[in-house]
Amino acid sequence: MKVEAFLVNSFTADGSGGNPAGVVFNADKLSDAEKLTIAKAVGFSETAFVSDDEEVDFSVSFFTTTEEVDFCGHATLAVFSTLFNQGVIAAGNYTQKPKRVYSE
Q: Does the pTM of the predicted model rise above 0.85?
């Protein structure tokens, strides 16, 4: 399986430092086991997998090297920065579906 993973640093200053995250687009057909394998290969604390969604703009799942996690802030920034830099989206407001919806 050939998958393109973008390696992105969020929270950088002058192009240095920051929190690294992997970003994988077109993850609709990847199983959780495949996502975990890719996250292990990327080796960062989190890798974000972007899928299409009928209800919101994007569905994003987050995997560490050992498991799926509910949410990751720096990886979310990496996703939308990469979407913008790749010309997939323009500046604006977008909705992301989290793994779980919490209610009070």
A: yes
